[in-house]
Amino acid sequence: MVNNMCDKKTLWEKTVDFHGHACPGLAMGFRAAELALDALGCDRSVDEELVAVVENNACGVDALQMLTGCTFGKGNLFFRDLGKTVYTIVRRKDNNAVRVAVRYGSTFDPDFKAIKERATSVSASQQDKAHYQEALKKRINSILSAGPEVFDIKKTVLEVPETASIYQTLQCSECGEGVMEPRARIKNGRVVCMPCEGESGR
Description:
The protein has helices spanning 2-7, 11-19, 24-40, 60-68, 110-119, 126-144, 194-197, and strands at residues 50-54, 77-79, 86-91, 96-102, 151-157, 169-171, 178-180, 185-187, 190-192. It is an alpha+beta fold. The chain folds into two domains: 2-107 and 146-157, CATH 3.30.1330.130; 166-202, Wheat Germ Agglutinin (Isolectin 2), domain 1 (2-Layer Sandwich), CATH 3.30.60. The strands form three sheets. Strands 2-1-3-4-5 form a five-stranded mixed β-sheet, with helices on one face. A two-stranded antiparallel sheet has the order 6-7. Strands 8-9 form a two-stranded antiparallel sheet. Strand 3 (86-91) and strand 4 form a beta hairpin. The chain is globular, with a radius of gyration of 21 Å.
């Protein structure tokens, strides 16, 4: 019975389940991924047919993973720490890409900000909290149906890396843990992992 109920959920509902809650940031990534896939004329990546490049590590990335099938585990999701709400989806077979960026200020709503501040204050009433939940739902729905007024959508061509490689695992001579061969280091003639070498990995 539980499985049948899950099957009836919309993709948005499944995305909310995956992320843990519904929020404007998740909706932003969801809609950006939808628009990118539409512009490319392709479906969710089963394996590594698509590659995604994200420029932030916020809520929207979870939605993008759900819609595109691009994940860190498959090696077709790349994070560039630029602090921008920008998502680029690339079709590997021809390097055709779509870059979707949120237009600066396009979703700013001073009324919503005020409602949220009242609802999250120490003195918030039940009415304030209910008003906020209403406003939040309306804001999310607005983002989920947004188009060029919110998102700047550009087609481009982007070189993508080779498909993900599988590497040998070596044992660190200091901590004893396994480490992927390309990330291993040599210290005093012995194999060590990056932390034992003193590298943070960032």
